[in-house]
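FAQ: What does the model actually see?

It sees only this:
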Amino acid sequence: MLYDDPRPISLLTGHSAVEAISKLSTNRLSVNKENNVERAVVCDGSGRVLDAPHIVWDESGVILLHTTSYKPDYLKSVARTLSKGSGQVMDATGAIDRFLCHRDQCPDQAGLVIDNLGVMGKYSIVLNPTRSEKWTNTRLTPEVLIEIGGLTDDHLKGRYLPHHIGLADYVRLDNGCYPGQEIHARMDSRNPNKKKMIWIEFEDPPNQNSLIISGFNCKFITPSGGRIVHGIIEDSTEVGFHDTAIGTVNTLDILNAL
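And it is asked to produce this:
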């Protein structure tokens, strides 16, 4: 099954498109014909994540697959930068078919596939798959994104540091001065990260916003009420089954948040 992903897609045109998004990202991008997929993490001035789009090289420009359900405001800054060189930011939502699927259920023919995403790296993003009667698709919902380890608006909008929501690998302090770089550098030198995001499966949906797991307080960062939630907990917490006050829970590290 393919999940039809309705989140916004932007197309950046102009020779400075990669540089324009790199100036805002926590890591310097090198998207080109040979290395055609990257990921940017865009933070606010306090170092908290606003968006973590996958970046795809295309002959017509650079495609941003946003993780937000809305078009992010930082695109205005990108547009101003690109306008100096006759480039622009275009809305490509609807012009590009974007789906999520389990890696073992991807269509044989697709324009591009981004693998090893979500919980345990089991999911893929598929762009422009060839239409076929062999597969069906359904609408992607926030609940599905949470279940497969994806980022939703609950993770973004400047709420959490990249280190806390599975995006620490994309923070590069040698990428010059980007929004939030000072905060990240201070963490690196004075206050190393000790938290991580985990995927929690309950026997019964919880009706609370936190839980003690292995002696550590775990704060839920997605709405409780479902069988699966995401939470932030001490980095040393082991994955697996844990006995808690409300029953046994199963936890997994979210190593590559989709």
